[in-house]
Structure formats: C-alpha cells, structure tokens
Design goal:
The complex is a heterodimer of chains A (about 300) and B (about 160). Chain A is of the alpha+beta class and about 300 residues long. Chain A has three domains: about 45 residues, 2-Layer Sandwich (Uridine Diphospho-n-acetylenolpyruvylglucosamine Reductase, domain 2); about 110 residues, Uridine Diphospho-n-acetylenolpyruvylglucosamine Reductase, domain 3; about 120 residues, Enolase-like, domain 1. Helices cover about 35% and strands about 25% of the residues of chain A. Chain A has a five-stranded antiparallel β-sheet with strand order 4-5-10-6-7, with helices on both faces. Chain A has a four-stranded antiparallel β-sheet with strand order 11-12-13-14, sandwiched between helices. A three-stranded parallel β-sheet of chain A has the order 1-3-2, covered by helices on one side. In chain A, helix 10 crosses helix 11. Chain A is globular. Chain A starts with 6 loop residues before the first strand and ends with a helix. The model of chain A has no long low-confidence stretch (mean pLDDT about 95). Chain B has a five-stranded mixed β-sheet with strand order 2-1-5-3-4, with helices on both faces. By secondary structure, chain B is an alpha+beta fold. In chain B, helix 2 packs across helix 5 and helix 3 runs parallel beside helix 5. Chain B is about 35% helix and about 15% strand. Chain B has five helices and five strands. Classes of the chains: A alpha+beta (about 300), B alpha+beta (about 160).
C-alpha cells in the first residue's frame, strides 16, 4: 500500500544528519538506498515521521588496493558487483553481490544500509564478520571503529547508537595468499537466503594457515563455526578438501540449540546449511589452488 | 512539499510534490505517464521499473523528492518520434508480451541489459531479468527478444 505521511530531510553533512537523529528521536530513520526500509513502510510495519536522506553526502566511494577495500557507507551493491579490480582474496564479496536481490535492487541498496539493518539472512553483515571488517560509525562529534563481531547483535539489531550512521567499512586481506567465496541457497533467484556460508582461507607454503568459516540465515546473526575452522587449519591446499558437512551440522545445531519453531530450522540447519558450508569450503580451496599456481 | 526538478524522457520538469510520493506515483499521477505500471508496490515484482541515470530502479521504492537533478527514462521514452526502439521491436516480433502488464518494467530492465552488455548468454540475461515477474509466464519470448537485440547489436558493430 501507499506509505503513511512523512517528511524528508536532506542534511548537508553526516554531522547534521546525526543532529537530526538526536532532535527527532525514534520517529526519524536514516534513508540510504531504501530497499529494505521502504518495503517495510509500504507494509506499514514501520511509520517513521521523518526520513533523513544521506545519499548526497559523499559516502559513495570505493577504494580498492591489493590488500584492502574501503567501502563508503552509501556505496551500492552494484558498485561492488561491477568492480573491475577486485582482488582474488575478496571474491566472496562479488559472489554475494551476484545473489543479493536483483539488479534494480542492487542499483539502489547500499552497503552501510545493509549493515545497519542487520538482517540475519543478509550478505553484508556475514561478509563483514568473515573478514573481520571494521565498520566506521559516525555521530555529530566523532567517529569510532566497530569490529564486525561486535556490530550485529541480533535480529535486525546492530550496536549503532541512535545518533550514529555507518559511514564506511574496511575489508582487509587476512594473508598474502588468500581466497574466499560465498555460497547460499534461496527459494527463488533474488530472494533472501534460506542460509548461506562464507569461507576465507589463507595459506603459506601450500598449507592452510588461517580460516574463517561463517554461516548466515540460521541464527539471530551470522556466526563463525570455530570447530569447522579447526578441521581445515593445517591442511595441504592441493589435497582433496576434507568433508566438513557432518561437523558443520553438529556445530549449527549446537548454536541454535533446541529451537525448532518452524519448518526452516529442520531443513535449513540440518541439511542446507551444512551443505553450503562444505560447498563454500570446496569453492574457496579451488580458488586458492588457482591463485597459488598463478603465484608460483 | 518540495520542488523537484527532473528530466523525464528528455523533457525538463519542475513540480511541487509531497515528500511521501513515490517516483512511480509522481510519474503516473503528476506527469500523466501511465505507461509505468504498479504491481506489488513493495519492490517484489519489478513492474514499475524505470531507468534513473541509466540504471534500473523500482520506482515504487524511490521517492520523487530524491530524484532532484536526475534523468529518468520511462517506457514512453524508449521510442524516438514514434519509431520503436530495437528492444520494443524485438518484444513484438518474439511475442515477448501477453497481457502486457509487466511489459513496461521488462522493457526498461531489458534496455538496461542491452546498454550495458553485449553477451547473448541466456543464463546471464535471465539473471539480469530475474527481478521482473511475468504472471503470464511468457519468459521465453522475453529472453529471445533480448538475445535478438544483443546479437543484432554485435553484427552492427562487426559490420561497421
């Protein structure tokens, strides 16, 4: 249906936007791409009286170097998807963008907006966790860096203060030789994931030295699977990858406990999620092998 | 209320509009451009897709007041003086429409694809169009139309 009535503010700076948040309080929402907020408003799930547009505040830059990507809070998913110079280490970001909504959603939806929204099935909070990304939160007076693992707290809940805005997020390459991938399953193309997994592997002397394995869509936030990570550490990169499905399944069940309040928890946590974890690992190892051979 | 100045299908427009009006309602009600259709009104169906500065956007998920200074193309802007654009001709030839309700949105997303890509890979085309739903399920004709346009475009470039 149509939105209920509201006023749109166009502040000239992040500081001014933060001040508006303070002045108006709970009735105000930051509007970036609007691809989650506006559908919620169309359903009248939320009825903010004020929207504060932050898309013209110069937060759209994406700075890529071989070792890191610094993404402006209002950079769109499409900007990341179409990066020409994305280093191999960050291919999980492109994997994620190719399955995030549809092109017209990606043309508008923003990285900072997705992080702030903290949907447990969304790609960006999970990607941030898998790369230990640093999220810059800015208010009227100052900026602070929030580690990804401290950022998403639960269902649609982040650790942002009410007057803070996500202004950028920094992804760093964890090791010299690194590969990554994201795999997810959804009911239809472009839907939110039923579940997904991200794997980031780094190697030295042909053996895996660092790993992050993250699963999303199964719990209140994206979560790491440390037991699965331990199975992978030390393995030789040119060996057949170890099958982690069973251990992933046990880890996921341990995380979600006995909660089985819908059909999703059975199929997703016991069958789909362990499978995507294993697939993400295999895909990443193949990429790591290619990269290792290329660097020989 | 805010004044918005936009370029719609090449014509400069300056109108006063309420803050909460979507781009879709602005186009249809304020400018009378009813070629853009509204389906779900929450960003799921793609029927209301238009091009904003060349990129496809769901006009039900954009506010008119945020389009200040932007260039918008709707289905009414695809032809030039009554001569159909290649994508419109291809839709007609390949039976890319049945009831026609989703067609304006499909044409705009397809137009974005043919402007940005030269690949006739069906998988890639279907991925690009996946945000547009056709309840008559006539997807094959739509995909064939897009393939025809990119193949013709390539031929033209090769012949030039």
């Amino acid at each position: 249906m149509k939105f209920s009535r509201f006023k749109v503010f166009f502040p000239d700076s992040v500081q001014e936007a933060s001040e508006l948040l303070r002045e108006i309080g709970d009735d105000a929402k930051i509007l970036a791409g609007g691809q989650s907020l506006l559908p919620m408003m169309a359903f009248r799930l939320v009825k903010p009286k004020a929207l504060i547009d932050i898309t013209n505040l110069g937060l759209v830059g994406v700075h890529v170097s071989p070792d890191q990507i610094d993404i402006g809070g209002c950079a769109t998913h499409r900007q990341i998807e179409t990066l020409q110079n994305l280093p191999v280490a960050f291919e999980a970001l492109r994997d994620g963008m190719q399955v995030l909504g549809h092109v017209s959603i990606r043309n508008r939806g923003t990285v900072g907006g997705s992080l702030a929204h903290s949907d447990p099935s969304a790609e960006w909070p999970a990607l941030a966790l898998a790369f230990d990304a640093e999220i810059m939160a800015t208010n009227k007076e100052s900026s602070r860096t929030v580690e990804a693992k401290e950022f998403s707290l639960g269902w649609f809940t982040s650790s942002l203060e009410p007057d803070e805005i996500v202004t950028s997020v920094l992804f760093r390459k964890p090791g010299e030789l690194t590969a990554s991938s994201l795999v997810e399953v959804s009911r239809r193309s472009g839907d939110f994931a039923l579940c997904g997994a991200i794997c980031v592997l780094s190697s030295q002397n042909r053996s895996i030295t660092q790993t992050k394995i993250v699963v999303f869509g199964v719990a209140e936030t994206a979560v790491r699977l440390p037991v699965v990570e331990q199975m992978v550490i030390g393995n030789a990169i040119f060996d057949d990858p170890v099958n982690v499905s069973r251990v992933a399944r046990e880890s996921i069940l341990e995380i979600i406990g006995n909660r089985s309040n819908d059909e999703k928890s059975g199929f997703v946590s016991q069958i789909a999620a362990p499978d995507v974890v294993n697939n993400a690992l295999r895909k990443t190892i193949i990429r790591l092998q290619v990269e290792a051979k290329r660097k020989l | 209320m805010k004044f918005v100045s936009v370029e719609v299908n090449g014509i400069h427009q300056e109108l006063e509009v309420d803050d909460w009006i979507t781009l879709a309602d602005f186009l249809r009600n304020n400018l009378g451009l009813t070629g853009t259709k509204l389906g779900c009104e929450y960003g799921s169906c793609g029927a209301c897709s238009v091009l904003v500065d060349g990129g496809s956007v769901r006009s039900c998920l954009e506010l008119a007041v945020r389009c200040e200074g932007k260039s918008i193309t709707t289905v009414e802007g695809l032809d030039s003086e009554g001569v159909l654009s290649p994508i419109q001709v291809a839709f007609s030839k390949n039976h890319g429409l049945q009831c026609g309700y989703c067609t304006a949105g499909f044409l705009m997303t397809a137009q974005e694809y043919v402007q940005q890509n030269s690949s006739d890979d069906e998988k890639k085309i279907r991925e690009h169009l996946s945000g547009n739903l056709c309840r008559c399920t006539g997807y094959q004709g739509i995909v064939d139309a897009v393939i025809e346009v990119v193949v013709n475009k390539r031929k033209e470039i090769n012949n030039a």
